[in-house]
Amino acid sequence: MSLASGTHMKRRDTLDLGTFRDEEAAYEFVERRIWPDGPVCPHCGSNRRIGRLNGASTRIHTYKCYDCRRPFTVKLGTIFQDSKVPMHKWLQLIMLSRALGPTLTSYKAAQILGVTAKTATAMLSRLRILEQKLRLRHRSQ
């Protein structure tokens, strides 16, 4: 079942958090959803001259736009931006939230994801704010 399908998982469905077991798989998943036709610079909107930076000190899945000469990742402009929590934990939280809905507590999320309760609270807060914005946008259309 797709994360973006808009339907809740049924109880008989298994929740496989291993789908997003590592950062590489998580970034590839998000990049395919956000950039189906390849990376697009969030700074200038270009998709022409973009290269992937693979240096030893470069963060995972960092790109550089050679039109505006600025680096970026798929996190820029999303709820993942400015978060130190690994991407795969974010995606696991989204899956949990879709499966458990409002019954998902910060404490339960922290236990399952292996993060502190404070981190889980902050993550759930960002996720719920985004869900509210999406609901409002959907109603206004």
Quick structural gist:
The protein is mostly helical. The protein has helices at 23-34, 87-100, 106-113, 117-140; strands at 50-53, 62-65, 71-72. It has two domains: 19-33 and 79-133; 36-73, no CATH class.
Radius of gyration: 16 Å
Gross morphology: globular
- Overall SS class: mainly alpha
Determine the strand fraction and express it as a percent band. Answer: 5-15%
Structural write-up:
Helix 3 (106-113) crosses helix 4. The chain contains 4 helices and 3 strands. The longest helix has 24 residues, at 117-140. A hairpin with a 5-residue loop joins strand 2 and strand 3 (71-72). The chain folds into 2 domains: 19-33 and 79-133; 36-73, no CATH class. A 3-stranded antiparallel β-sheet has the order 1-2-3, with no helix packed on it. The chain is mostly helical. The protein is globular and about 45 Å long. Residues 22-70 form the Transposase zinc-ribbon domain. Pfam families: Zn_ribbon_IS1595. InterPro entries: Transposase_Zn_ribbon. This is Transposase zinc-ribbon domain-containing protein.
Features:
141 residues; mainly alpha; 2 domains; 3-stranded antiparallel β-sheet; 3 strands; disordered N terminus; Transposase_Zn_ribbon; Transposase zinc-ribbon domain-containing protein
